[in-house]
Specification:
293 residues, alpha/beta, Arc Repressor Mutant, subunit A, D-Maltodextrin-Binding Protein, domain 2, 3 domains, five-stranded mixed sheet, 12 strands, 40% helix, 21% strand, elongated, DNA-binding transcription factor activity, transcription, LysR family transcriptional regulator, transcription regulation
Length: 293
């Protein structure tokens, strides 16, 4: 009978999820060498190569693809069994994510956290960076992923995000007129950066649309009513970067930062997994390690 080692299976699933030995080691708080040893031990145990690794990519083998769902079920069953022995079996924390950062990958990241620790419940709040930082400082949320604010240098850097000026292909701007800028109400840091950049370049602008939320701003931009600053990852579908066309100033990338007060081991492990997965979804040219432990 084949007996599986929990840590080896966890290493395999984490490598498969993050498609990187380096990120998997970061997420599990160990070294790349240790991750490789655990994977080799699992492959020897099951008698199959589970991960194919080249200098350019890491992917599941045919056998690995057949094994991955069972491996996830194995880990979930193990976590449920261990959690049942604890008087605090259910753990909960509140995570805030800034609206201009929370992209389409967020459900995938949360699903990975659930696989990693089924006994943990995470309440997610979406708001502006400033509002979430204020909530964090009041103790209303346990951790936030936000854009770096100018007035504070604390927190752990997760990634760096590029910004552009996006509009619908039908958007028209006549030379000499003020730029029609769609903006959140209240304003978020990205829009503040955009306004300062326009002011510094001597380009007149007007807030022609004040949205109550990011979805309203996206709708205004998609309809061709205005321009708005977005990262390419978050720009509304079908819009294009018009910065060069209208000679708009280049927008400096901004740092995405994690703030947390969580100190227990399991919560820190969950955040480490989230941080590693979050970086995976950013272009490699705009990523660096944060040292989050």
């Amino acid at each position: 009978m084949t007996i599986l080692d929990v840590e080896a299976v966890q290493a395999f699933v984490t490598i498969a999820d993050l498609k990187s030995f380096t990120r998997a080691a970061e997420a599990l708080g160990t070294t790349q060498g240790a991750i490789s040893v655990k994977l080799k031990r699992l492959e020897d145990r099951v008698g199959h190569k589970l991960i194919e690794r080249t200098p350019r990519m890491v992917r599941l083998s045919v056998q690995g693809a057949a094994f991955i769902n069972g491996a996830r079920d194995f880990l979930a069953a193990h976590e449920r069994a261990v959690a049942g022995l604890s008087p605090t079996a259910v753990r909960r924390f509140t995570l805030g994510i800034a609206a201009h950062i929370a992209g389409p990958e967020v459900p995938t990241l949360l699903a990975r956290l659930n696989t990693h620790d089924p006994a943990m419940t995470i309440e997610v709040r979406i708001d502006t960076s400033r509002a979430l930082l204020d909530a964090f400082d009041r103790g209303d949320v346990d951790a936030v992923i936000v854009g770096r604010e100018d007035d504070r240098r604390d927190g752990d850097v997760l990634a760096k995000e590029r910004l552009g000026w996006f509009a619908a292909p039908t958007f028209e701007h006549r030379e000499g007129q003020s730029i029609r800028l769609a903006a959140l109400s209240p304003a978020c840091r990205v829009h503040d950066v955009a306004k300062r950049a326009l002011d510094a370049a001597g380009i007149a602008w007007t807030e022609s649309f004040l949205g109550g939320g990011s979805s309203a701003v996206m709708a205004a931009v998609s309809a061709g009513l205005a321009i708005a600053p977005f990262s390419p990852r978050m720009a509304p579908l079908g819009t294009v970067d018009v910065g060069e066309r209208y000679r708009l100033p280049e927008l400096a990338p901004f740092e995405i930062v994690l703030h947390t007060t969580l100190s227990d081991t399991r919560s820190r492990e969950a955040l480490r997994m989230l941080a590693a997965a979050f970086r995976e979804h950013r272009p490699a040219s705009l990523r660096w390690d944060s040292g989050f432990v």
